[in-house]
Specification:
alpha/beta, Carbamate kinase, 8-stranded mixed beta sheet, 17 strands
């Protein structure tokens, strides 16, 4: 039986630095990513592919604000769902094409994914996660009327929202069944749409975002994945990253990485969530975690680069 892997793509994987983010650029970048994924599939793995949505959901929020005089703005959860659809379409199509070119028939499916969070999560009282574009002061009243909290950053403002810890994936059983049937599943787009469980058992969306890597790890636990691959914008994890004597980590154990994490080596706004996801995954029974650059996915999978974290 093939082993199961979660591959999480960073939020800027589809729009490279210096690009405008046209749909043609995003499709080209997605095609490049698809080749790495197909090579991993050829090595005998069943894969769930997850992805960030930072630039895309930011563009949707900006469109919301610019057209508010003609169309009612949509809440954040709906914007995340929109981004799941558009990114899922790009990945689904390019992966299908890449598989066919390699002579592999494997159905590819995107799942709109909801993530259960605790309604009493402390982040709801202290929103700190910046999302979307920078706004001028004259837009503040409109955004506050929509219920958003804004934070001043230099001479502009950004929306900040809660980022609660993921507790469970609503569609976990469907994802697992599709994976067990040999399908390639795209899920947890942008960390998923955060929802809370009400007393009567209903789900209700909340204005928040869930960290994509932590949500991917949550899903990895629930589908009994063997491998978690976190692809980002650096080739390896570094110690002392912001100093001149920074040191790359090629291979490290769970115990060692946990000591560095507890000492505050990995900041919350950068590598921190990825390391926390790695710790949770290995402690829950996962076999290994790979962290590397989004363009080096297959090389990292083969052990030629990246950071490998094991028990």
């Amino acid at each position: 039986m093939n082993k199961k892997a979660i591959i999480a793509l960073g939020g800027n994987a589809l729009i490279k630095k210096g690009q405008k983010g046209t749909i043609y650029e995003q499709f080209a970048n997605t095609r490049n990513l698809s080749n790495s994924v197909v090579n991993i599939i050829k090595d005998g793995w069943n894969i769930v592919l997850t992805h960030g949505n930072g630039p895309q959901v930011g563009a949707i929020l900006l469109q919301n604000n610019m057209t508010r005089d003609f169309l009612p703005p949509m809440p954040l959860g709906v914007c995340v769902a929109e981004s799941q659809g558009l990114i899922g379409y790009m990945i689904q199509q390019t992966l299908y094409n890449a598989l066919i070119k390699k002579g592999i028939y494997k159905p590819v499916v995107s799942i709109l994914t909801q993530v259960i969070v605790d309604k009493n999560d402390p982040s709801f009282k202290n929103p700190t996660k910046p999302i979307g574009p920078y706004y001028d002061k004259d837009k503040l009243d409109e955004l506050r009327e929509d219920g958003y909290t804004l934070k001043k950053i230099k001479d502009s403002y950004r929306i900040v929202v809660p980022s609660p810890d993921p507790k469970s994936i609503v569609e976990r059983d469907v994802i697992k069944k599709l994976l067990d049937q040999g399908m390639l599943v795209i899920a947890i787009g942008g960390g998923g749409m955060p929802v809370i469980e009400k007393k009567e058992g209903d789900l209700d969306g909340v204005e928040a975002v869930v960290d994509k890597d932590l949500a991917s790890e949550c899903l990895a636990e629930e589908i009994d994945a063997d491998l978690l691959v976190l692809l980002t914008n650096v080739e390896k994890v570094f110690l002392n990253y912001d100093s001149e004597d920074r040191k790359p980590i090629d291979k490290i154990t769970l115990g060692e990485i946990k000591k560095y994490y507890n000492k505050g080596e990995f900041p919350p706004g950068s590598m921190g969530p990825k390391i926390l996801a790695a710790i949770r995954f290995l402690e829950s029974g996962g076999e290994k975690v790979i962290i590397s650059h989004v363009d080096k996915g297959y090389e990292a999978f083969k052990g030629k680069t990246g950071t490998l974290i094991t028990k």
